[in-house]
Structure formats: structure tokens, C-alpha cells
Amino acid sequence: MTRILLVEDQELISSALAALLDLEDDFEVVGRAPDGREALRQLEGLEVDVVVTDVEMPHMSGLDLAGAMRTRFPAVKVVMLTTFARVGYLQRAMESGADAYLLKDGPTRSLSAAIRGVMAGAKIIDPELAARAFVESDPLSHREKQVLRFSEAGSSTREMAQRLNLSEGTVRNYLSSAMGKLEAGTRFEAAQIARKKGWI
After folding, report:
1. In what order do the strands lie in the sheet with 2-7?
2. 68 and 114 both lie in a single domain
3. What is the pLDDT of residue 161?
4. Which of 65, 106, 130, 137 is the most exposed place for a label (fewest CB within 10 A)?
5. Cβ 53 vs Cβ 66: under 8 Å
6. Cβ atoms within 10 Å, residue 95
7. pTM of the full predicted structure?
């Protein structure tokens, strides 16, 4: 029996997924959580084989949850189930330790097959998204992502330099490099493009 924890902030979707998965003879939904933070709390007291989680949720995202689980619950598999068909999110999910990345508009049987697949040691990715990933890779460095996140939040170059312990000139170089890679006219436009792609 595969024991599943569902992590989904929309109650209607969570209930529907639980009902569908419980129809499978070899699955048991042992818990449901509205966000990553609550999922970690439940993992402390539950026997779980697979976590099926959304990506964007309040308090703690599925990406952050997967990263935390890699350290605290490395034996538990992670299946991302999301509406976001973004290559950037897929790449970040895999880097965070996810075992599968599926889209919510896919067939129900795909989720069941993915759960069985990851339990057998496979990595499962939505086929269309996997194909796009070959041609649309993330061009940004770690530092470029950091300065774009700060730009998105409205931080000045000076504030970024202080928070990152860099010179203002170095921060401007990172911003300029990111803008060039994304063909953006301003730092704010670059941040918007990166956010839309799922890279920050």
C-alpha cells in the first residue's frame, strides 16, 4: 500500500484528488495539508511514501517543501502537480528534489501512473513540458536571480549591494547581464520576464 499526503491549498481540488486516489486499490491518502509548512508538520507524525503537492501555495510553496524534505525526509517521494506549464518551475522542482512534475489538466491516470513510477525509482515529467525544457533553459546565474528578485521588490542598487555584501558596481553588472540575457529594457522588465518564465 502506497501512503500519500496531499498538499493543496484549494479545498475542492484537494477533496477531488483524495477521492480519486482512494479509488485505487494500492493507494491510501493518509493526510491532507493546505501548504508546505503544514505538510512538514504532518510528516513528523505520519508514515508517508509519497507527497503530492501543488507548486504555488501560501506560507510555503511546493518548491520550498521539496527542498526541505530532501534534508528532513529524504526517503519520501515528491510529485509536483500544478497548473504552471513553465520550464523554469520544472527546472527548479527537479533541483529541489522532486521526483515527478505533472500538470493538473492531464488525465487522471497520469497521476496514478506517476505515483507508481516514482515508487519504482523513476523520474516522471509531463512529456510536452519535458520537450520544451530541451530548447528553453534558464540562462540566469544565481546572483542574477538574486538581484532580479530584489528589483522586483523595489530595492535600490545600494540596498541590494548592502544585503548581498557586494559593491554597487558589481550589482549593476549583474543587473545589466540579466537584462541582456532576457532582452529587457529595464531591470523591472527583466524581473517580470524571469518571473513569468518561472526562473525566479
Report:
1. 27-33, 2-7, 50-53, 77-82, 100-103, 124-125
2. yes
3. 92
4. 137
5. yes
6. 13
7. 0.69
